[in-house]
Design goal:
The chain contains seven helices and 19 strands. By secondary structure, it is an alpha/beta fold. The protein folds into two domains: about 180 residues, FAD/NAD(P)-binding domain (3-Layer(bba) Sandwich); about 120 residues, FAD/NAD(P)-binding domain, CATH 3.50.50. Strands 1, 2, 5, 6, 7, 8 and 19 form a seven-stranded mixed sheet that branches. A five-stranded parallel sheet has the order 10-17-11-12-13. A hairpin with a 5-residue loop joins strand 6 and strand 7. Helix 1 runs parallel beside helix 2 and helix 1 packs parallel to helix 7. The protein is elongated, with a radius of gyration of 22 Å. The chain binds NADPH dihydro-nicotinamide-adenine-dinucleotide phosphate. The site of NADPH dihydro-nicotinamide-adenine-dinucleotide phosphate has 15 residues, from helix 5.
Length: about 325
């Protein structure tokens, strides 16, 4: 399934000093990375994990997690990630601060530079760097973070039962999130910047058929308002046109669904991705096009993007690593 790549022009920068040699290097510390660490540590791979820019990953920005099996009363995202970290450390994972800044995956051992200064040589590499939800870039998104602004309807929708919410975006994610929220909420506004949806026809039809979804065509977000929490949004209608106007909607939740950016840039010279940047894995495995390099979690999953599916794929990556090491010892 993978094409061939010309690697001759991808020369990494030189880092001074002796490289540290590790059996299994895990980059990223969301549910995928920690689960990979738990399994790799228990398989005696002495994994070393670098946590990356956002230790704990995207879940540390959510409040209550109620859909991860095993927590009947729910748990906060940060607490769950702390539990996973403790579990990974308990079996001997060496968890470190630091960001992978460069890679050379042209041959084994794989070379990974941390913080542009430290060189690691790894027999196997597990990429669990996740994806980052895109935001509009308006100040109010930060102001109301945790107070009505969310980039994950499946994670946070439940808190808006019976209320009015808005979803921004016109792709399949926005359509899906609007449908999901429509099942929980009183009313869902879908804020679409053009006069058509990018979503697939079948999703569009579902959206149009759902009575409590109202599509606001040619609307863009100007700002949010509310006393501490979101109480409404101010929108431009027909922005930049002669009939431009500003409209207000009353909402309790504001959901971004304008796409995610997988954190795969530093691997792209070696690892095949799709056009958006999601790492391609051989279906049913965590194997990438480079033998010995495995990917798990949101960096390779544009579809499910749930903590539990990330954790499952992290387990697969550790098992694939362990088998790779025993077959290539
Ligand atoms: P997409 O890139 O497909 O869509 C992003 C949407 O957000 C577009 O409608 C875009 O508008 C809008 N947008 C982008 N930036 C802004 C902005 N600054 N202000 C307002 N609107 C903005 O991302 P998705 O996450 O929806 O989908 C990603 C991929 O995953 C797609 O290939 C999709 O098909 C797939 N997917 C499939 C699903 C399924 O099959 N069930 C479910 C979810 C995703 P515009 O159209 O004007 O560019």
């Amino acid at each position: 399934m993978f094409g061939t790549m010309n690697l001759s022009d991808k020369q990494p920068k030189k880092v001074e000093g002796e490289a540290e040699k590790v059996k299994c290097l895990i980059i990223g510390s969301g549910p995928a990375g920690y689960t990979a660490a738990i399994y790799a540590a228990r398989a005696n791979l002495s994994p070393v994990m670098y946590e990356g820019l956002q230790p704990g990953g995207q879940l540390t920005t959510t409040t209550e997690v109620e859909n991860f099996p095993g927590y009947p009363e729910g748990i906060t995202g940060p607490e769950m990630m702390e539990d996973l970290k403790k579990q990974a450390a308990r079996f001997g994972t060496d968890i470190r601060w630091g960001l992978a800044t460069e890679t050379d995956l042209s041959q084994r051992p794989f070379k990974v530079t941390i913080d542009s200064s430290k060189l690691i040589e790894a027999e196997t590499l597990i990429i669990a760097t996740g994806a980052t939800a895109k935001y509009l870039g308006i100040d109010d998104e930060k102001k109301y973070a945790g107070g009505g602004v969310s980039a994950c309807a499946t994670c946070d929708g439940f808190f808006y039962r019976g209320k009015d919410v808005a979803v921004v975006g016109g792709g399949d994610t926005a359509a899906e999130e609007a449908m999901y929220l429509a099942g929980l909420c009183n009313k869902v506004y879908l804020i679409v910047r053009r006069d058509e949806l990018r979503a697939s026809k079948v999703m569009q039809e579902r959206v149009f058929k759902t009575p409590n979804i109202e599509v606001l065509w040619k609307h863009q977000t100007k700002g949010l308002f509310g006393d501490g929490v979101v109480e409404g949004a101010e929108l431009y209608k027909n922005k930049g046109e002669a009939n431009e106007e500003i409209v207000k909607i009353k909402i309790d939740g504001f959901f971004l669904a304008i796409g995610h950016k997988p954190n795969s840039d530093i691997f792209k010279p070696w690892i095949e991705t799709d056009e958006v940047g999601y790492i391609k894995t051989i279906p049913g495995t965590s194997k990438t096009n480079v033998p010995g390099v495995f990917a798990c979690g949101d960096v390779q999953d544009s579809h499910y993007r749930q903590a539990i599916t990330a954790a499952g794929s992290g387990c697969m990556a550790a098992i694939d690593s362990e088998r790779f090491i025993s077959e290539n010892a």
